[in-house]
Amino acid sequence: MTSIASLKVKIFADGADAPEMLEMYSKPFIKGLTTNPTLMRKAGISNYRAFAREILAQIRDKPLSLEVVSDEFAEMEHQAFEISGWADNVYVKIPVTNTRGEASYALIRRLASRGVKLNVTAIMTLAQVREVVSALSPEVAGFVSVFAGRIADTGVDPVPLMAEAVQMLKSRPKAELIWASPREVLNIFHADSIGCHVVTATHDILRKLPLVGYDLDEYSLDTVRMFYRDAVAAGFSPCR
Questions:
Q1: How many distinct structural domains can be found in the chain?
Q2: Cα–Cα dist 66/64, whole Å
Q3: How far apart are CA 145 and CA 148, in angstroms?
Q4: Is residue 227 part of a domain?
Q5: 223 domain residue, yes or no
Q6: Which of 211, 189, 207 is CA-nearest to residue 199?
Q7: Reduced to 3 states, what is the DSSP secondary structure of residue 114?
Q8: pTM value?
Q9: Which of 43, 55, 111, 175 keeps 20 to 30 A from 33, CA to CA?
Q10: Which of 184-193's residues contact partners 24+ apart within 8 Å by CB, and which partners?
Q11: Neighbours of 194 (CB within 10 A)
């Protein structure tokens, strides 16, 4: 098993709890951070601007992706310029379509041509990757975020799709492919093996990284001890 230290893929922390975000930011192996409205709602955030300003006051030297929250392209564009102005390290997340399934490619092209650094999100097909890559400016940094974990949830192996996406991005050297929504630590190694640039992971997954390379016999023993400890603590007995 490859060690974390030898990975070439960059690991971004995905979350919305401010203390957890700052904890992950402090770790040298975390190269960037992302969030989204769903994570923010789960974290109980009620004031988007205040949350973003608080985080950006302390995270200045790593990329941080923040998402627009409108379903109309004109308002998305307005929000994108507002959000991008908050800090130089901000990448504005634009969904690949709105809720009516209308593609965001024209908006992506306009924003990229104006120098807005984008993170195009919720992508799940190679056709979408192709259109997004075409819309991005070769002169402006950006991320193409493919939800490989959700693809896997449908029973489809995302590795071949992601490998092809890596090739597609070669025409945009300033754009990077994100393996988004991983379901397990192994996905980080999948992303690394195909040359994916970035993998995002929630704090639950990132906290499992110390297990990488752990002896499986020891892990087996740890598991047996856990079952026994919990049975004793609960007072379980099949005989009474």
A1: 1
A2: 7
A3: 9
A4: no
A5: no
A6: 189
A7: coil
A8: 0.95
A9: 111
A10: 185/209, 185/211, 185/212, 187/148, 187/149, 188/7, 188/9, 188/11, 189/1, 189/2, 189/7, 190/148, 190/158, 190/159, 190/162, 191/9, 191/148, 191/162, 192/2, 192/7, 192/8, 192/9
A11: 19
Question: Residue 174 and residue 119: Cα distance in Å, rounded?
Answer: 12
Which tokens go with 205?
A: 């997954």
Report residue 14 as tokens: 């995905």
pLDDT tens, the chain, 240 aa long:
568 889 999 999 999 999 999 999 999 999 999 999 999 999 999 999 999 999 999 999 999 999 999 999 999 999 999 999 999 999 999 999 999 999 999 999 999 999 999 999 999 999 999 999 999 999 999 999 999 999 999 999 999 999 999 999 999 999 999 999 999 999 999 999 999 999 999 999 999 999 999 999 999 999 999 999 999 999 999 987
- Whether residue 114 is contained in a domain is answered as yes
Which tokens sit at 43? 């974290």
| CA–CA gap between residue 5 and residue 25 (Å, rounded) | 17
Residue span of the structural domain in which 168 resides: 4-214
CATH assignment at residue 74: 3.20.20.70
Instruction: Note whether residue 69 is domain-resident.
Output: yes
